[in-house]
Every structure is written in C-alpha cells, then in structure tokens.
Amino acid sequence: MGNRNIIIASSGTGGHIYPGIALAEEFKNKGYNPIFFISNNTASIKILKNSGFEYIEFNVSGMPGGISFLFITFLVKMKFSFFKALIKIVKLDPLAVIGTGGYIAVPVLFAAKILHKKTFIHEQNAIPGKANILLNKITDKTFISFQSSEKYFKKKNTILSNYPVRKNILSVSKEKILRELKFENGIFTVLVFGGSLGAVKLNEVACETLLKLSFKNRIQVLHITGSGNYIKIQEKIGDNPDYRVFEYMHDIGAAYAASDVVVCRSGAGSVFELKALDKPAVLVPYLYAADNHQYWNAKEIEKDGKVIIIEEKNLAKESLSNAIYALKENIKSNTAESIIKFPRKLVFEEIIKCMKS
Question: What's the pLDDT score for residue 336?
C-alpha cells in the first residue's frame, strides 16, 4: 500500500481540533494514517488522548498583541516549531498536510510547502483567523464552512465544503443515554456547555435560571461546566436529582441526544453540530473571540428559526428563561425525518481528490 500518512495540524481548544478528528476518522476509514501535530496545551492533549489518534506535541502559543517580551517568545517558539516540523515531515513523508486552525498550522504548513507537499487548510468560522488568511496565500486549497468567509480568501483556490461534523454525534440513541443518566424520557431536558474551557458567566446564569425554572415546571438539566467551574456549579445544585453536572464529556453526541434545547457558545463546531442535528439552541457568543467571529457564526444559522442569540452583555436570568421558553413552545412534535443533515460536500473527499491530482 505504501506510505499513507496524512498530517493534521491543529491547536487551541476543541473548536479547531474536533474538525481535525472528524477528518482523521474519515481518512482512517479509507486506509490512510492520520497523525496530529498539536500545541502542547492541556486542552489539546486531553482531546487527542481521548481520540486515540497519534499526535506529536509542539511548543506553540497564541500570538500576543503588541511588541513585547511575550511577542519575542512567540516568534522564537514559531522558529523552533518550524524546524521541528521540517524534520518530522521529512521522516513521515506525508501525502498531504492539513491545517484546521491555530498558530501551530503556520510553521507546519510553511515547512510542508518548502518540502513540496500537498497543503490544505480548513476554516471553520464565518470570519477567518489571521493564521488561515496568511496560509491561504501558500496552500493548494482552502476549505471554508460558510459562504460568507469566501471574500477573505483568494477565490481560485477556495472551496465551500461546510464543516466536517463527527459522525458519532449523529448516531446516539436518546433513550439509551437518558437511561444512563437516570433521566426520564418525556421530561423537557436542557443541555448547557461553554466549550472546552467553560465560561464563568454563562455557567452561573444558566445554573441560576434553570434551578428557578425547575421550581415552576419539572425539567432535567445536563450541565458541562469545564474544569474551572465544576465545583462551584456542583455546590449550587446540591443533591437535585434532575440536575447532572459534568466537568467534561468527550462524547458530546450523547449530551446532544439527551437534550431538547441547548444553551452554549457559538464556535463553528457547535453551530454546525446543532444544525446537523436540527437542535433548538440559545447561543451566547464569546465576547472576546477574535473579530467577534462567534457572533457572526451564530447569525449565519439564526435564520433557520431554531436559534436565539443572546449577547453576553445581555445575558441574565430573565433573558435566558424567556429564550428557553420560546424554544420550548416552538419544538415540533415530530422531527425524526429531518434530524440528520449531512453537508453537501465532505472535506475529506475533496482533499483526497486534490491529493491525487
């Protein structure tokens, strides 16, 4: 069969890594050997360890603003990562190198280009990151999730491919996961999560709101807090049997399946997963996301009618409870036929086509 290695460069939190994992699963199913190049932060390592895929760590961090000692450190790390990537790419001799986001992609894709490897990037967000705007100038193809982000790239090498949603998210039995959670079927259930690292205000307001709502009508809550908020939220809910708190859930598909309504951030991954599952949601964009891209991600699917956006500055118990009630009232009694919506063009198929050209 020969060498079937494909390198996927990704760093940061789940928003960049999970689409890489979705691609890796498809490549593996087709007989390829995906290998991740990741930054050595805790979130990246934890996600990759759970995925079971091979990975190599790089000492790379996000770019600080302004000229400072931290900026010089950032440049030094990028330089060393570039030379490490050169050595590893020569050794692995991959068929292609794919960047799915984060600054690790910059030294890795530049090294791959120098070594005349096929290079690709995938941009998840409506407003692309600076790293991908730069890399678009040197890579063979750029894959985008939203049509609106095309204007930021060279049109000739840009392909609208949508977002590579992990298949296991689309195939979870609701009844099975409710039994495992010791939840009752038929009781209105809300899922809350704030991303890989959690979100302090979102966690606290959601918890207070849902505890108050549960006094009026029985509801069940599945709350994924992130590492920094777990203890505080657990203390707030006490021994409430209808409120389950988790620090982290690797199988987010199970959490989606259990829920009727979701309250979460609007990273590209969450947005496309909600869209694929046809799941009603209250989206609270992360206020400090680069170029406010989470807000624009949310706006892209707001027109579907199943999403209510609450900006963080407006997030309060009243606004959140009103949004949850509005979505509850609009839930259709039978959505079984429309629940799975696969992208019209899968990224991995386009990459394989480009690799062979």
Answer: 43
Instruction: Annotate 221-251 with b (16+ C-beta within 10 A) or e (fewer).
Output: bbbbbbeebbeebbebbeeeebbbbbebeee
Whether the Cβ atoms of residue 139 and residue 348 lie closer than 8 Å to each other: no
Whether the predicted pLDDT of 105 surpasses 90: yes
Under 8 Å between Cβ of 338 and 278: yes
Express each pLDDT in 279-324 by its tens digit. Answer: 999 999 998 888 889 999 999 888 767 899 999 999 999 999 999 9
Q: Are 55 and 36 in contact (CB under 8 A)?
A: yes
What is the domain count for the chain? 2
What lies within 8 Å, CB to CB, of 72 at 6+ separation is none
Is residue 288 classed exposed, middle or buried when 0-12, 13-18 and 19+ CB atoms within 10 A define those classes?
exposed
Tokens 């406010």: give the residue: 292
- Comparison of pLDDT for 108 and 251, the residue scoring more: 108
The answer to whether residues 352 and 311 belong to one domain is: no
142-194 pLDDT, tens digit per residue, is 999 888 899 999 777 898 888 888 877 877 788 888 998 899 999 999 999 98
Burial label for 312, CB within 10 Å (0-12, 13-18, 19+), is middle
- Contact between 250 and 227 under an 8 Å Cβ cutoff? The reply is no
**Which band of pLDDT confidence, cut at 50, 70 and 90, is reported for residue 225?**
very high
Q: Measured in Å, how far apart are the chain's first and last C-alpha atoms?
A: 18
Using a 10 angstrom Cβ sphere, with 0-12 exposed, 13-18 middle and 19 or more buried, the burial of residue 47 is buried
Please say whether the beta carbons of 271 and 306 come within 8 A. Answer: no
186 and 228 co-located in one domain: yes
Q: State the Cα–Cα distance between residues 286 and 293, nearest whole angstrom.
A: 9
H or E element that contains 191: strand 189-193
- CATH code for the domain in which residue 276 is found: 3.40.50.2000
Domain that holds residue 126: 5-164+343-356
Greater confidence (357 vs 257) lies with 257
**Tokens of residue 338, six digits:** 């429309």
Q: Check whether residue 121 and residue 268 sit in a common domain.
A: no
Give me 173's structure tokens: 């039995």
pTM for the predicted model, two decimal places: 0.84
